Amino acid sequence: MPFHRLSRQPPGKTESGLRLITAKNVKMGFLQMLPLEYVNASIYESWMTRGIPQMGDVLFTTEAPLANVAQLDTDEKVVFAQRIIVLQPYQPNLDRTFLKYLLLSDVAQKRIHEKARAQRSKASRPAC
After folding, report:
1. CATH number 3.90.220.20 given to 3-122
2. Of the candidates 2, 6, 3, which has an alpha carbon nearest to the alpha carbon of residue 82?
3. Which of 15, 74, 77, 97 is 20 to 30 A removed from 37 (C-alpha atoms)?
4. What would the pLDDT profile of 31-75 be if each residue is shown by its tens digit?
């Protein structure tokens, strides 16, 4: 399953243009419209170089907060800010809605947060 992690500096925001989806928009199970932010449409080609999002793709936040999951609910061109992974499962092997609910499940959320805690703990240990 390809995924596209966008982790660079955010593009400059504008009053209109393409909708910018940030980690603030990705809630547990749904995509929130607010805050409604835009970027200049001319940056689309250079910014979205690692895959073109499609309606139904699963969005996953990597921090602040970790593991919020939603599904892209529009066909419009959108741009993703950093701290979002866009999951595009191979169809028909894995249904996108099933993947969303799997990642939202208590079992998956617990496992994700346990792994994150272990990584943070490992990173904070002094080198010997």
Report:
1. yes
2. 6
3. 97
4. 999 999 999 998 888 878 777 899 999 999 998 799 999 999 999
